[in-house]
Amino acid sequence: MTQHQAAATSSFQRVLVGVDFSDSSAHALEVARTRFAGATLRLVHVTDARVTAAPDLMGGVSAAMPDPALLHTLEDADAARMAQLARADEETELMVGDPVTGVLDAADRWNADLIVVGTHAQGAIEHFFLGSTAEKIVARSRIPVLTVRREVRG
After folding, report:
1. pLDDT at 147
2. Looking at residue 76, what DSSP letter applies?
3. Is residue 36 classed as helix, strand or coil in its secondary structure?
4. Which of 5, 49, 62, 152 could form a disulfide linkage to 56, CB 3.0–4.6 angstroms apart?
C-alpha cells in the first residue's frame, strides 16, 4: 500500500458492509477487509420483508400481509449464514424490512464513516423498473458509499 493509499483509507474507521450473501456481496466484503484492515467492520443484512408480496396483473407487486412463519424461517437462515461469514472481530446486525432503508438506518445509528456494497449485473428492463439497491443507497446516503463490482471472467 502506498503512502497515499494509506492516508486515504485511514480516515474510515467505522465501515458498514451491506451483506446479501451473493457473490457480489462476498467480494465487496473481501475488498472492505483488505482496503480498510484497521477499521471496525459492521456487517449488516436486511431480510427483505417484500418476499411476501404477490405479483399483480400489471406486472408489479401488491403488498401482502407478512407471513410471520416465513419471515422467521428466513431470519433464522440469514442469522446462520451471517454467523459463518463474520469474523470474530467483526460486528453484525440483522434486520427485516427494506434493504436500502435498513442499510442506511443502520449506518446512521452506528455512525459509520463509509458504506461498502456490492453491485449486481442486471438486465436493462430489470434495472429500468427496479433500479439497483446499491444505486439507491448511493443516491440517499449522507456518507460516502463504495460500490464494488465483481469482475466476471470467462
Report:
1. 93
2. H
3. coil
4. 62
Tracing cell 463490482 back to the chain, one arrives at 149
Distances (CA, A) of 22 to 19, 29, 51, 59, 85: 8, 11, 17, 25, 12
pTM: 0.81
Give the single-character DSSP code of 147: E
Distance of CA 129 to the CA centre of its chain: 20
Rounded average pLDDT over 33-45: 97
Query: Whole-angstrom Cα distance, residue 104 to residue 99?
Result: 9
Beta pairing, strands 114-119 & 145-149: parallel
Handedness of CA 127, 130, 133, 135 (dihedral sign): positive
Gap between the Cα atoms of 32 and 10, Å rounded: 12
- Mean pLDDT value across residues 63-67: 61
